[in-house]
Each structure stands twice: as C-alpha cells, then as structure tokens.
C-alpha cells in the first residue's frame, strides 16, 4: 500500500509537473505571440507615421511649387503687359510724331503754294500775262523747290512710309508673340493643374491607404486583445485543473493513510 501510495504520488507529481510545464510553455508561446503582435503593431504605427509625414511633406512641397510657379507666371504676365503697353505707347508716340511732321511738311508746302499763288496773281495783274494762272502757280512751285529739294522730300516721304510699315510689322509681330506666349502660359497652367490634380490623387490614395492600414492595425490590436483574453482564460482553466488535480491527490493520499 505504501508503494502504491508513493507510486500514485509520483504519478500525480509527474502529471502536475507536466501540466505546469505545459502551462509555462503555453504562457511563453502566448507571451511571444503578444510580443510579436506588439512589435508588428509598433512597426505598423511607425510606418504609418512615416508615410503620413512623407505625404504631408510631398503635399506641402507641391503646394509651395505651384504657388511659386503661379507667382512667376503672374509676374511674367504683368511684365509682358507692361512691356506691351510701353511698346504701344512708344509706337503711338512715334506715329504721332510722324503725323505731326507730315502735317508740318504739308502745311509748309501749302504755305509755299499760297505764296506762289499770290506771286502768280500779282504777276498776272501787273504784267497782264497771257498764260493761265495755274501754269504760273506750277512754275512758281517748281521755282520754290529745287530738284534736289523735291527729291529729298520724296525720299523723306518714302522713308517715313517705310518706318510706318516697319512699326506696323513690329507691332503685329509683338502681338503675335504675346499671343503665342499667352497660349504657352495657358498650356503650362493646364499642365500644372493636371500635375497638381494627379499629385492630389496620389496624396488622397496615400491617405486612403493610411486609413486602411489604421483599420488593419485596429483589427490586429483587437485580435491581440482577444488572444490575450483567451490566454488568460486558458491559464485560468489550467490553474483550475491543476488545483483540482492537487485536491484529488490530497484526497487519495488521505484515503491511503486511512487505509
């Protein structure tokens, strides 16, 4: 009976030892799983924080770049408008000067013609010439300007016409250039808007991915919590079974002692 009691005690002790080792192994496994889950959650949080920071930096850099581009575009447009206005003022001033000069020359020529007419009429009245008055006037005008002067006046008139033509061509060329630059600026703005929208979509995608990762992280935390709860329940059950085994062992030992 003593040997049987000792054998039973040894068996129960072995069972208790094995149960304790199993409990400790289960606790170690659950602790390792919890540690790995915590490390994964922490790594995911760090990754999400870095991605959020990168997305925010990218967004801020893109906004700063677009603001700088808009500022340069506005400055370029203002500069072009100012230059075009100055060019128009200069062209108008030169055209006004040319008109004034031409008017002065015509006035001088008209004055010369009037003087010649006066002289011709006086000659007709005093000398009673037989030739018509318009011939006298034409001869007076020819006498007023030498062939060299008439050639100079014709050359000057041709030069002014050429200058006016060149100014007109330059004005049209400048208008064409400004129109092309405006078209290019508009195309650049459209491209910049498209790039901004594309980057905004990328940022939105990153935000969406970050939100999804947060949801996954919340799920992972929930699973970790449930695993911890299950571990505690299993540990409680194991402790309860160990306690019951110990009680049974004590009861058996008491019975053996009574026998």
TrEMBL record:
Start and end residues of each stretch annotated as Disordered: 1-44, 221-259
Species per Swiss-Prot/TrEMBL record: Ditylum brightwellii
Coiled coil stretches, renumbered: 150-177
Protein name per the record: Uncharacterized protein
Keywords noted in UniProt: Coiled coil
Organism ancestry: Eukaryota, Sar, Stramenopiles, Ochrophyta, Bacillariophyta
């Amino acid at each position: 009976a003593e040997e049987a009691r000792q054998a039973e005690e040894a068996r129960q002790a072995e069972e208790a030892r094995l149960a304790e080792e199993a409990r400790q192994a289960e606790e170690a496994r659950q602790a390792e799983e919890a540690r790995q889950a915590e490390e994964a959650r922490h790594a995911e949080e760090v990754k999400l924080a870095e991605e959020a920071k990168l997305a925010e930096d990218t967004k801020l850099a893109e906004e700063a770049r677009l603001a700088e581009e808009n500022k340069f575009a506005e400055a370029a447009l203002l500069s072009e408008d100012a230059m075009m206005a100055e060019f128009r003022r200069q062209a108008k001033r030169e055209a006004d000067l040319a008109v004034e000069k031409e008017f002065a020359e015509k006035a001088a020529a008209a004055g010369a013609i009037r003087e010649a007419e006066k002289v011709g009429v006086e000659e007709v009245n005093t000398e009673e010439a037989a030739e018509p008055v318009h011939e006298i006037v034409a001869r007076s005008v020819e006498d007023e300007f030498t062939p060299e002067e008439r050639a100079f006046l014709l050359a000057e008139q041709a030069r002014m016409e050429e200058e006016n033509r060149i100014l007109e061509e330059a004005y049209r060329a400048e208008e064409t250039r400004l129109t092309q630059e405006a078209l290019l600026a508009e195309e650049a703005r459209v491209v910049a808007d498209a790039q901004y929208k594309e980057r905004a979509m990328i940022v939105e995608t990153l935000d969406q991915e970050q939100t999804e990762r947060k949801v996954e992280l919340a799920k992972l935390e929930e699973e970790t919590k449930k695993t911890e709860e299950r571990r505690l329940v299993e540990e409680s059950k194991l402790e309860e079974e160990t306690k019951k085994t110990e009680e049974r062992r004590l009861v058996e030992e008491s019975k053996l002692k009574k026998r």
